[in-house]
Design goal:
single chain; 356 residues; alpha+beta; Recoverin, domain 1; Immunoglobulin-like; OB fold (Dihydrolipoamide Acetyltransferase, E2P); 15 strands
Amino acid sequence: MADILLPQQEVFERRVAEVSRRITTISESNTMAKLLHSNFNTWLNASSMSPVKLTQDLDEDKNGMISGDEFAILLGKMTGERPPQWVVELVFSFVDADTATGIPISDWMAFLAASGLEIPESLFETPVIITGSLLIDKPQTHTGEDVTITASFNEPIDAYELHVRSSLGESEHFVTQQSEMDSPTFDEFVLDADNPGDYTVELLHLGVRLDTAMFTITEPPVVETPEPVEEPPVEDASAEDGPSERPTPLPATGSFSDLTDALARMRLRSETQAFLANSGAHEVRFTVLSTSRTLLGEGAYKNGSTLTCQTDEGTTFELMVGHAEERSFAKGEVCHAVVQPHSWSVALRRLVCLEQ
């Protein structure tokens, strides 16, 4: 048998308590069980044998299990003769084990502890202390921009939690399983926060806070562009006299690339949002350039994916895909989708759309 390695001491002690309660319950209803356990305790204390030596000698086939036959040999040494099968089965019932399968070493050691033997602390598994850290790519950013955050850990984890609070009183809580992480010790994700404010992000593992980071979102500054200098009009004899007309905004029925070009010419966020409110959906064929996970989002798009895409005409845009779709996207994949324009990213100069 290899070196004995027991669970963490706290876990082991809970198992000892369970075995003790089971021994008491069985002994109260079975006089033979009570007498057998009492005699076994007496023999253990008189033998002065350590639990490690006793276990290593008992596990003759070195498979990490105490079989019914191996335990019968031990009882034979105690009493001078091999016990009947029902006696072995009675003792195995103390740890809810079957004689054909055997008792796992950890349960056997819990039985010895419940019978009065002291288990060396060196046998217990050392608890792994998990540490983690957060890294925010842009501590200060503007509305409409993506905030990329990475979480890293010193050891593989099964899951982690993220708590995001804003100075406006908004709060979001996310749980990410290992299967959704980039690796068991690393994860990168995107926070899509449109509201200005100060944000605090807490990284937690099993309810323990590992790290805290902050970032601030503000409205982008308004860049005033100088008015173009009007040149004297060139008279055209063929033109009819009449008032000149200003160009009208692009109608909602324009192409996807025309829509993007029109938004790029606008200066105010309120102007772009008003324009987008009147824009209809578009059917687009595109290539996926990159993917990331969207944590702060609205409704079905929260915890979904954000794709950076490029149309066949060369227009680059962001597409938010709902978490309920249960699809994965690969870099270079060509897709078709009906997209609804949602917002304009001032920092990236890109249109952000929702998949319909």
